[in-house]
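FORM 7B - TANDEM STRUCTURE REPORT

SECTION 1: FIRST PROTEIN
SEQUENCE AND TOKENS:
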Amino acid sequence: MRHFVRSRTMLGVATLSVAALALAGCAAADDAGDTAADVVADTDTAMAAGCEAFADYMGNEGETVEIYTTIIEPESTLFQESFVEFEDCTGITIEWNGDQAFEEQIAVRVAGGTAPDLAIFPQPGLLKSFAADMVPASAAVASSVDSNYTADWKNYGTVDGTFYAAPLGANVKSFVWYSPKVFAENGWAIPTTWGDMLTLSDEIAASDFAGNAWCAGIESGAATGWAATDWMEDLMLRFQDAATYDSWVDHSMPFNDPKVAQVIAEAGKILKNADYVGNVSAIATTSFSAGGAGVVDGSCAMHRQASFLGGILVGDYGATVVSPEDTDVESGISTFYFPGVSADQTPALGGGEFVGAFSDAPAVAAVQHYLTTPEWNNKKAALGGWFSANLGLDTANVADPVNAVAVEILQNATTFRFDASDVMPGEVGAGSFWTEMTAWIAEDKADQAVLDAIEATWPAS
């Protein structure tokens, strides 16, 4: 395991310098006959100055709280920076422990009696398997989450009616990537309904545009197929209601139910339509990242993928992330919301992390609480490359225009649901769902045959 030493900002250095001067002053005061009580009183007064925002977390000076997570450098550096003022004011030291083997090692640590104080779980399913070992969230944490998040987010940190884990970062998958320049040059309007999007696809396919209406790729090594499952999940939220989505995820509704058949048929209207995508079977051997490159070079008009794609297209394909109004930027890319059946239906598919506690120490509860506040969420977002579903997050602190749209989607979503394949049993979510959707594309396997095959792999309860 790797432990990261937190780096201090200039604020931290200044605070340390002031502390050193204060200690020197105290030493002089001792020589003059001041009592120890006088020194403590002076220190308390100095500590409170400028730290009023952290009053709720005081009284835990000298405590250390370990946060165990999958998040490592360079991303971890910004997390550590976001804690500096909190640490300086409260006297709590946050030990950030990033480990890429988190998913397997968290079980080892819990079983061995060395559970971390706080753990950041990247999937609700993994979180639920540790509910018996975790400490229920404090009343302060629960109240903060009630105030600062929609109920859907709290539900994902709740197990059997008990709330354990507070939301942290988020990602949004309900995006269509496109080039504002290409759309403007061709006079195409952003669709606001699923029907409008199919009509636009027909228009592009029939025009003299040199590329395809859509590009796609689902190859991802051993995880090939996950990108196709995202289409199913987004469309399940649009053609069925939230309760049906939940029934699909927990298998109270069979995977081969007619409602699921309706959804895969809708997905096929784009992914298996050669007029829209060109060579359908090639999608199975095109990487998910290369699948989106067409919106950069103009070989396709649209690509459905999560908010994280922007960084890949910028780093690997020379794209520039722009706002929809920036219609003169060559290789400029932006996003629009993957529309619902009607314009007022705005569900969001995404993912996120959840912070659960294995200790009931007051300092641990204080850190868990702080991470739920608009104050910390805005501080962290302003450092760049990150956003959350916190309702108090100001998009002015989210510099990336796509991430800013993602925040707006989360804050205005009529329904939010977590990526289904991340919540389903591993045999299905990271197994047959991936492989059968790949066969659906690569082999033109029939809709019902795909659903029947996935249903057959669902583990017995």
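SECTION 2: SECOND PROTEIN
SEQUENCE AND TOKENS:
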Amino acid sequence: MFITIDGEKIYCHVVGEGKPVVLLHGFGCDHRLMAGCMEPVFQAHPGYRRIYVDLPGMGKSSGPLSWACSDRMKSPRCF
């Protein structure tokens, strides 16, 4: 699914049902890295709704190049 923040489409991959857990990847990858690492853990612990987010400009999320730095990600305007 996509959500819109400041006119940019942000991709969120949602898995399961239950208590929500938001998982964010680091720079240089996308939600698939976190899903690959964390899904085996959650398979052993049901009852969680996992929300894997692609950071702006990464994966399936849109975003201007000006957002592609850690300083910009800290801006309250982004999230």
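SECTION 3: OBSERVATIONS ON SECOND PROTEIN
Strands lie at 2-5, 8-15, 19-24, 48-53.
The CA atoms of residues 19 and 33 lie 21 Å apart.

SECTION 4: SIGNATURE
Preparer initials: ____
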